[in-house]
UniProtKB/TrEMBL annotation:
PROSITE patterns documented for this protein: ACT, ASPARTOKINASE
Highest taxon, organism lineage: Bacteria
Catalyzed chemical reaction(s): L-aspartate + ATP = 4-phospho-L-aspartate + ADP
GO biological process: homoserine biosynthetic process; lysine biosynthetic process via diaminopimelate; threonine biosynthetic process
Gene3D superfamilies for the chain: 3.30.70.260, Acetylglutamate kinase-like
Domain ACT, first and last residues per copy: 328-396
CDD domains on file: ACT_AK-like_2 (cd04892), ACT_AKiii-LysC-EC-like_1 (cd04912)
InterPro entries: AceGlu_kinase-like_sf, ACT-like_dom_sf, ACT_Aspartokinase, ACT_dom, Asp/Glu/Uridylate_kinase, Asp_kin_monofn, Asp_kinase, Aspartate_kinase_CS
Species the sequence originates in: Chloroherpeton thalassium (strain ATCC 35110 / GB-78)
Stated name of the protein: Aspartokinase
GO cellular component, one term: cytosol
Length: 465
């Protein structure tokens, strides 16, 4: 039985939820699937916005957003639920959650501070709303279903906003609370993205973290597969918003998928892959609007990958906008040791992760997405070297089997880039990615040229659909 994760686009409104229910129904056999759902699309962003409004003393805006969230869920309930009593109890629940959100807004306004802990409390309501409505609609349609508060089972560390699971406790909770229900044929509907620390306070796994929840549950419950249901046919050769003619990948390796998601392919959360790889649970990415499409299988099973791992084959292109390049130059770098350690310590001390690095004899260039502590970073780096910063850059990453060792691929990539100024180049140690940094204004041109170079003639192969 699979763990089935439905993203925000798959539970956006009543019609989308009805689709999802039909998909789940098709998976119920003797045992039932575990269903992990995100918040309705757009709701988490509204919760972030209202939390910040509250912190910045613009409470009327915060209350107005809270009202929009309430109205959205009231509409979903009215469109989806026919039974009067069920509607009434769901409306009461929506009112209760809205009151709690409004109390949090007032609290943040009074204290004038929005901590990661409080932000997680705000975040949790998106998934609480959507899963309660979905579970009730399934019960109404005669499917044996129970709603579960994920915070009772997914126990995490105290790293609010970016929490990591505590594996042993979570395993035990799943075995005692969830497994018996699934084995009795009861579908359990729970939230992605949220958990709680040992003290019972709400935590979240980072934005997009519902995929990660599904992978954690799938790995610990030893499920046959993890299904990630979204609004595209699978993992594609590029984000279809940039390249509408992007093609579906039939199968890819875990490493290729991890690289793509790390470099911005939003279809999967970067951490999803780890628990799945460790436990060898295949991941299927599928389209909830077109369930008949086969989707993409992500696996390391050599049998399933036969014919799919052709050396030097480019599988997909990802990109990440809003990068800042930090160039650090020092003649002290020449022949000394410890210089790079000093540079990286500055980023660690300022809690900023580095996306891409390239070095020469006397300089190192790094890119970061989070510029919150940039001024302090520059000040600290100036103790060691000259520093300059370029904003509005983008990383482009070409992913595929053994790209680094394959003669000719780099030539094709950079030939396709003529007229585009390449600011940095980096080839990952994993052999499966070639990445480079360009100005954001050249991004569309660069990605379209690359896609044309590698994918204009691949239809009908074993790898691409
Ligand atoms: N390589 C890719 N393959 C498929 N989708 C991609 C890729 N890169 C980016 N995307 C984007 O990811 C989106 C799905 O992610 P997201 O919006 O988070 O969906 P969900 O609500 O299901 O979590 C797609 O609509 C697509 O625009
Ligand atoms: N709702 C959360 C978690 C999530 O994973 O959402 P989605 O599956 O829609 O990307 C977010 O927006 O970050």
């Amino acid at each position: 039985m699979p763990v089935m994760k439905f993203g925000g686009t798959s539970v956006a409104d009543a019609a989308a939820m009805e689709n999802v229910i039909n998909i789940i129904r098709g998976e119920i056999k003797e045992t039932a699937p575990l269903v992990v759902s995100s918040a309705c699309s757009g709701i988490t962003n509204k919760l972030v916005a209202l939390a910040h409004d509250a912190a910045e003393e613009t409470c009327p805006e915060a209350f107005s957003l809270s009202n929009e969230i309430k109205t959205h869920h009231q509409t979903v309930i009215d469109d989806l639920i026919q039974t009067e009593s069920l509607r009434k109890s769901l409306h009461e629940l929506v009112n209760k959650y809205t009151d709690e959100i409004n109390t949090l807004i007032k609290g943040v306004d009074i204290v004038g501070e929005l901590t990661p802990r409080t932000l997680d409390a705000f975040y949790s309501y998106g998934e609480l709303f959507s899963t309660n409505i979905l579970a009730a609609a399934m019960q109404e349609r005669g499917i044996k279903t129970e709603w579960l508060d994920a915070r009772q089972v997914l126990i995490t560390d105290d790293n609010f906003g970016q929490a990591q699971p505590l594996w042993d406790i979570t395993q035990e909770n799943l075995n005692t609370v969830v497994l018996p229900k699934l084995e009795a044929g009861i579908v359990v509907v729970t939230q992605g993205f949220i958990g709680s620390n040992r003290a019972g306070k709400t935590t979240t796994l980072g934005r997009g973290g519902s995929d990660y929840s599904a992978a954690i549950f799938g790995a610990l419950l030893n499920r046959a597969s993890i299904q990630i249901w979204t609004d595209v046919d699978g993992v594609l050769t590029c984000d279809p918003r940039m390249v509408p003619e992007a093609k579906r990948l039939k199968v890819m390796t875990f490493s290729e998928a991890a690289e793509l998601s790390y470099f911005g392919a939003k279809v999967l959360h970067p951490s999803t892959i780890h628990p799945a790889v460790k436990n060898n649970v295949p991941v299927y990415v599928k389209n909830s609007k077109r369930p008949e499409s086969e989707g993409t299988l992500i696996t390391n099973d050599p049998e399933l990958l036969k014919g799919m791992t052709v050396s030097g084959m480019v599988k997909s292109i990802a990109y990440k906008k809003a990068q800042s390049i930090i160039n650090v130059r020092s003649t002290n770098m020449l022949g000394t040791y410890g210089f790079l350690a000093d540079v990286f310590r500055v980023f660690a001390d300022n809690e900023t992760s580095v996306d891409m690095i390239s070095t020469s004899e006397v300089s190192v260039s790094l890119t970061i997405s989070n510029t919150k502590n940039l001024n302090q970073i520059i000040e600290d780096l100036k103790h060691y070297a000259e520093v300059d910063v370029e904003h509005n850059a983008a990383i482009v990453c070409v992913v595929g089997d053994k790209l680094r060792s394959s003669a000719g691929v780099a030539g094709r990539i950079f030939n396709a880039m003529h007229g585009v100024n390449i600011r940095m180049i980096s080839q990952g140690a994993s052999e499966i990615n070639v990445g480079f940094v360009i100005s954001e204004k050249d991004l569309e041109k660069a990605v379209k040229a690359l896609h044309n170079e590698f994918f204009s003639e691949v239809s009908g192969s074993d790898v691409f659909a």
